Amino acid sequence: MVEEPAKLLIQKLGAYWSFRGMPALDEVYPDEHDKELADLLINLPGPQPAIDALRYALQWKYSDLATRVLERPDFDASFPDYYGRTPIACAVFYNQPEVVKLLLQRPEVDAGTPQKNGLTPLHLAVEERSLPFVETLLKRPEVDAGRADKHNYTNLHCAAENGELVIVKLLLDQPGVIATLPDNTGMTPLHWAVRSRNHTNHPWQPMQKGIFRCNGPPGFRAQSLDIIKILLAQLEINAGIPTKKGLTPLRHACLLGDPEVARLLLGRRDVDANARASHGQTPIHIAGSSRPRRRMKLMGLLLEQRGVDITDVDNDGRTILHYLCGSRQQFYPPDLVIETALREGVPIDKISVNALFLLSLGADPMVSTRLKYNNSLLHIILRTPGFSQEQHELMDELIRKGIEIDTYTDSPLANLWKEDEYKIEDVDGIHSVDPVSGSDCTPLLLAALGESRLKGLKSLLHAGADQNAPVIMRNMELEGSTESNRQAFLSGVFRETWDVEPSDDDMIQNEKPFKILLQHGSRLDYDGIADSPLQDACKAAEDGRCALLKILLDNSTAKNVSQSHVKEVLSEYTDKDQQSRITDMLTEFERKVFAN
């Protein structure tokens, strides 16, 4: 039932807009509860209510209502709706061919009128992959097939991105269509056509309730390849042109692991097999970061090209082997690629890669050039998402080979997300380790962040890693009387492991690393100016989160903290009656540990 105030506003005052500044009809759903309200709004007089009524009918597929609206004397087929869309654009968008046919018979209809964002009905038809609509609209003299939207994105860009071969052919035959025109990001139709070979760029198909699969339309890869060939045959095409991020069509093919397209492109004189992207990556770097299994074939193809050097580094000092072995799990053993590298004549002492195979051949674990910001191979391994048995074996082998275990990173003092100089990757899909961190630390801190790295933590401690190496916090707001960036080791682990206000459950889940560190002598006191780990734990306990303090006290002995520091912390809470639990815990710890 319609509430009386809303009904009166519509009937007596002609109220039409919702409190959100949108047509009220957009807030109404086609159910029995809102039916009376919808009828009142639909029947309001004027061109604006009429066009919104048509859009409502098209959206909910009420064909009878759409016919009635088209017959209204106040309906103007050239009048845009609230979003700037004309009736013909709405009919195309909602795939209503009969309404499109009726609208095109009206003299006031301009099928080339753009909406607010510059999209025309033809853009929408191409976007919806509707060949019948495209053919119909291209017959209209007012339709400009080469028109771009506000992002300089044309119909040809869209057809190439969707892999629609027939539509691409139709558009290339139209006057005003430019095959080389870049959009605002620098992507040309050729760039988009190469990307269309990726199935994730196509509509997701429902498999069963709540489950979708992204397969792409049947034969889409072959169609996309034909589009690429057609575009490459255009006389004015430059197949080596980069986007604003420095990605050429070849780099897109490498990112997708597509040797078939790469071979087409590499056969052209205007394609440089060694051209660099915005962060200095060559196509072979990008091929190494892609996921598909075919990347091995692709990298072999690239290595056959003149000027391609497998030892080349990007702006951060990474070789292709960093990308292959220093990032995420691969579909194939890295040994295969490393063997290929060795056959290509790569000097062992010039390779910076965490690979057991290289170490077995005598590679120096202290590589000549570290990764950016002084990350060692141990840092790289421990920054990789997850921690596998293979990574642990690699750590052990590096340690056995004599790698330094207490080296510090050296992160920049800057806002890392706003300074272009420090943006490590701004190219979607490139998978590699980000060497920037909010803290400068030794590998031991990274090994202490979560139970998945316990084996690595034990290996480092067994090898003599400094369990009290200070941590330098770079981009975190610090508490305490000094707010010092230089923190005790355990304090650094606290801040890197948890949110600003972790719950007791969060702390208990990370109990094992703390037990191991305390068994190996990590200190609860600190001789610097910042708060000690014991003080940090007490501060957490002040608002009821006592789990951390309990973990520390239950697993500590006199080798972890001095009695004088315990007394100092106790004195801070002596006059705080509301914190009696903290004083009780500290008093009991002092009695148990320092009784003699």
UniProtKB/TrEMBL annotation:
SMART domains tied to this protein: ANK
Chain positions of ANK repeats: 117-140
Gene3D superfamilies documented for this protein: Ankyrin repeat-containing domain
Keyword vocabulary terms for this entry: ANK repeat
InterPro entries named among the record's database cross-references: Ankyrin_rpt (IPR002110), Ankyrin_rpt-contain_sf (IPR036770)
UniProt-recorded name of the protein: Ankyrin repeat-containing domain protein
Species annotation: Fusarium tricinctum
Biological classification of the source: Eukaryota, Fungi, Dikarya, Ascomycota, Pezizomycotina
